[in-house]
Amino acid sequence: MDLIVSPREMQDLARQWRREGRIIAFVPTMGYFHPGHLSLMEYGRTRGDRLVVSLFVNPTQFGPSEDLDRYPRDLARDTELARQVGVDVLYTPTAAEMYPPGYQTYVTVEELSRGWCGASRPGHFRGVATVVLKLFHQVQPQVAVFGEKDYQQLALIRRLVRDLDLEVEVVGRPIVREPDGLAMSSRNSYLSPEERARALCLYRGLCAARDLAATGERRAAPLVAAAREIITATPGTRLDYLGLVDPDTLEAVEVLKGAARLLGAVWVGSTRLIDNLLLKESP
Ligand code: AMP
After folding, report:
1. Distance between alpha carbon 53 and the CA centroid of its chain, in Å?
2. Which CATH superfamily is domain 2-173 in?
3. What is this structure's pTM?
4. How remote is the CA of residue 183 from the centroid of ligand 1, in Å?
5. Phi and psi (nearest 5°) for 147?
């Protein structure tokens, strides 16, 4: 496995691979790998004959009061895990090279950036869309793999690719969970043992809504209320948002028709966690 830091070097290698007819699969990450990241890499391995994983804690997607400085990092461990999965290049650009002095170009996916996480984290998705577009130009993948864990991000990247005619296939992969159901996240490392136990309320809430939908309930209000009840009954947590949404536009739906996504975000102490679940109309 090669470690590449320079965007120019990454782009030169990608260009050479493309000339040789290689299929480049790409997994963008912020590192501190857990089995969710590794599942994307393993899938990427099956889709390309070259696999690039980027590890970049992107400053433009963090707000001024967010956790950029304390975001967990362990490059030595991540390097070893990536090597074990069979990654060809672990690409770790620096912020100084991604955003050199004078940098001023940003892309905004307008509607999809507004609600849900976008409402709680102003500027977040502008940073995400910008860095992903830059990474796509540097890595030149034919296939890019993202987790459904960050469902709004996935929907926004799909839209970005369509709107800007990018020649990249975007693949969304299922959420990898802890044995008790908690969605794996690098930010779970912030949780104290007590907070870790409380954090489960988000997944349990989403499951309560799914179970209610399975009994035939189709109205969004009671479905969301079922989830909210479990979260608000959990001490030490604060609900950020819950929304039953159209899987593509992420617009709130009033009634479950076919399938919808239930999105949620919860503060557990000073840690903000997100999760989501597919809800299907019961036959
Ligand atoms: P991050 O390093 O948190 O920016 O995540 C990098 C990629 O891994 C994103 O596409 C995430 O959606 C994905 N990811 C994070 N957690 C999980 C998980 N528990 N299951 C599946 N994919 C995940």
Report:
1. 14
2. HUPs (3.40.50.620)
3. 0.98
4. 10
5. -90, 145
pLDDT digits (tens, 9 = 90+) for 107-116: 999 999 999 9
The model's pLDDT over 179-230, given as tens digits with 9 standing for 90+, comes to 999 999 999 999 999 999 999 999 999 999 999 999 999 999 999 999 999 9
The two most distant CA atoms of the chain are separated, in Å, by 58
Give domain limits for the chain. 2-173, 186-278
**173's tokens:** 């992969």
CA of 102 to the centre of ligand 1 (A): 31
Domain 186-278 in CATH 3.30.1300.10: yes
Residue positions annotated with a catalytic role: 37
Sheet holding 259-268, edge to edge: 237-245, 259-268, 271-280
Is ligand 1 within 6 A of the CB of residue 186? Answer: yes
Ligand 1 pocket, residue 54 CB under 6 Å? no
| Å from CA of 283 to ligand 1 middle | 32
pLDDT digit string (tens) for 31-68?
Answer: 999 999 999 999 999 999 999 999 999 999 999 999 99
